[in-house]
Amino acid sequence: MNRIQPPLGANPPPARRGDNPRRRRHDLTLPLPQRDASLAVPLPLPPPGPSSAQSSSAHSAAQQLINFNELERSNRIGSGTGGTVYKVIHRPTGRLYALKVIYGNHEEAVRRQICREIEILRGVDNPNVVKCHDMFDHNGEIEVLLELMDGGSLEGQRIQNERTLSDLAKQILSGLAYLHRRKIVHRDIKPSNLLINSRNQVKIADFGVSRILEQTMDPCNSSVGTIAYMSPERINTDLNHGQYDGYAGDIWSLGVSILEFYMGRFPFSVGRSGEWASLMWAICMSQPPEAPPTASREFRHFISCCLQRDPSRRLSAVQLLQHPFISGNGGGQAQQAHQNLHHLLPPPRPLPS
Q1: What averages of pLDDT result for each successive group of 10 residues across the chain (353 residues)?
Q2: Which of 2, 12, 73, 304 is the most exposed place for a label (fewest CB within 10 A)?
Q3: How far apart are CA 313 and CA 240, in angstroms?
Q4: Which keywords belong to this entry (predicted)?
Q5: How much is the pTM?
Q6: Cα–Cα distance between 348 and 308 in angstroms, integer?
């Protein structure tokens, strides 16, 4: 066997003390075989667990960029002051999405704000928040590709079954708790922004007015959202010493929405589409609405925990998830939990028996 010569110009390293020159030769090299890249295959990975599988699939979906030209509009499914929503088909895969077209050629500052808030939504990944897949700038219009909720919104729904209402409220609170943990305030919770699909999943939608609260605690006091579902201290800045807590404001809006589902109508003494002065008086000057006496005590207490005039007395989304109306899946099933609730926060005003 011929010795394999070292490459030209290579100098052997100096021998170390104690090395056996007959058994260890640092100047020996072996040629590497030529690799055919066309035959390369990825090595199999170990099977992922349930949580990592979900994370991996979500990550893969996020990495799959969708070409705008591959989307085909099917029909219009909704419209409002901010834009129009279409059902679209992604032709290569056949998947259905919702495409929200935001009206108008916006000024640069407005475009930056819209793009910033869409970027917030793109980073959101929760089963009770509508997923944002992509964003396009098409002919000067901003178009947002969203998860399709085939059941539409809960606008106009009447839900008197407390078990059903408890499950619905739990899903909304789960999404809201997730958003609040990420320092995101929605600021426009209302029935038309709560969507449902054919699997009875309820999800929070329309982040057109959401924003992130930085650690510096931005006062978050710009007037956006629907006044009918706004908290008193947000409408009237003279209340609560001019301080506005966006998280507590979301809880008020949730309470109004849940009570509206139960009653089948806007729960204040005026219509929600009434003139601004009448709505302001009803929300800011009168006592907060209450669930009717025919409802269970758990439900009446739950609504009262949401609709406190003092925002510091409203329970948070995380605390409300522990409320007996939620944890007991409806009224009359969790007396012990009801007693433990009083340790979470000073109790609301007494309810009629």
Answers
A1: 42 50 53 43 38 43 71 88 86 94 74 75 90 84 90 94 97 97 91 94 76 40 67 86 88 98 95 84 93 97 97 97 91 45 44 43
A2: 2
A3: 12
A4: ATP-binding, Kinase, Nucleotide-binding, Phosphoprotein, Serine/threonine-protein kinase, Transferase
A5: 0.72
A6: 7
Catalytic member of 188, 206, 245, 250: 188
**Residue 188 a catalytic site member:** yes
Among 206, 252, 195, CA closest to 227: 252
Residue 61 neighbours by CB under 8 Å, 6+ apart:
133
Helix boundaries (H) for the chain? 50-63, 108-122, 162-181, 232-235, 246-263, 276-280, 297-306, 317-320, 324-327, 335-341
The dihedral region occupied by 139, where left means phi > 0, alpha psi between -120 and 50, and beta the remainder, is left
User: Per the annotation, does 183 bind a ligand?
Assistant: no
Residue pair 289/267 in contact (Cβ under 8 Å)? The answer is yes
